[in-house]
């Protein structure tokens, strides 16, 4: 393979990978200089000129002419007068000899290795370009097409044919994909695994929801409305705290849109995830009340030391505060940064009840705490539910729940 064919084939391959001309020339020169070093031990006195467009390559070895008896005759950049005059008969001592080196002089095997090295360097460069491109896109929404569905992940391809990965854990539980589907997600992280960029997407990240708000709500994109915090239970429920420094803008109304037009587009993208948009305030008690929406709070007690908040509600509001699967109270706690305990307010005509704390000698403290997290703070509030209700609301075993029922019923039988 001559130099023209080698360079032209490499240049065509490089252009197909969108490699710019200066980078292409640099790679070519690096490879040819490596060939020179292998054959001549150094490339310091070599001049390499490449014209990638025409496929031209010129390699010149530059040496200074010295007397045949000179002590410097063995230096890499020196040549004896006798040897110089074999190249050009009228050379004199002190002049420089520019000796052209043809590619064929390196041998067929060396040229073939150079070709493989050039292709590998472009592939490595392509991987670096891809890694850098997506590293800059971390936290941004991308759209890609599903091309393979595996048990632990979905593989997608972007517009340039690059492989992206959406792991099972980063998918909304209700997501169902088919080959050819177009999927929106954020670039969650980019890793280099064994020299190959691994691009991980996410649809469960709070950042994905934030980007969807930016896309659907111009005031958020323009910075007129600030998203203070987002907490999510992907596919089930999310709470978004927003605020605006412009009194003329209602941040909640702007995010929801006329007849819910803006929020509905986001809800559809998130597989009907229930989204509560809350007006942020530094007034902690008011913030907690808003966070527990749609429940109406009667009173609140804050314990700064333990970072716990006791919330008192009317009996018909307790289930609203807890929410389906306990998601409402869990997300409210995450949003305000405090552990929230829900307590029922007793009406005047309600029968006497017993606080669960009274059973601490028979029921483990952690079990009582688990029940209180779901708003069950008295014996009757627990007995009012079925075993199935408690299994769904808590992380307690059926046997444990049956034992709790036995202990509580025994109290009232006595």
Question: What do you see in this structure?
Answer:
- By secondary structure, the protein is an alpha+beta fold.
- Among the domains are: 3-132, N Utilization Substance Protein A, Chain:P, domain 4; 137-204, Nucleic acid-binding proteins (OB fold (Dihydrolipoamide Acetyltransferase, E2P), Beta Barrel); 217-280, GMP Synthetase, Chain A, domain 3 (2-Layer Sandwich), CATH 3.30.300.20.
- Helix content is 39%, strand content 25%.
- The radius of gyration is 36 Å and the shape is elongated.
List descriptors.
four-stranded mixed beta sheet; GMP Synthetase, Chain A, domain 3; five-stranded antiparallel beta sheet; OB fold (Dihydrolipoamide Acetyltransferase, E2P); elongated; cytoplasm; N Utilization Substance Protein A, Chain:P, domain 4; 414 residues; alpha+beta; 15 strands
Low-confidence stretches: none
Radius of gyration using CA atoms only: 36 Å
The CATH architecture classification of the domain at 3-132 is 2-Layer Sandwich
Helix run count: 15
Distance between the termini: 101 Å
Q: Determine the structural class based on helices, strands and strand pairing.
A: alpha+beta
Report the mean per-residue pLDDT as an integer: 87
Tell me the fraction of residues in β-strands, as a range. Answer: 25-35%
Instruction: State the order of secondary-structure elements, H for helix, E for strand.
Output: HHEEEHEHEEEEEHHEEHHEHEEHHEHHHH
Secondary structure tally: strands = 15
CATH structural fold name of the domain at 3-132:
N Utilization Substance Protein A, Chain:P, domain 4
CATH C-level name of the domain at 3-132: Alpha Beta
Lateral strand order in the biggest sheet: 7-6-5-8-9
Shape by Cα distribution? elongated
**Helix fraction bin:** 25-40%
Query: How would you characterize the largest beta sheet?
Result: 5 strands, antiparallel
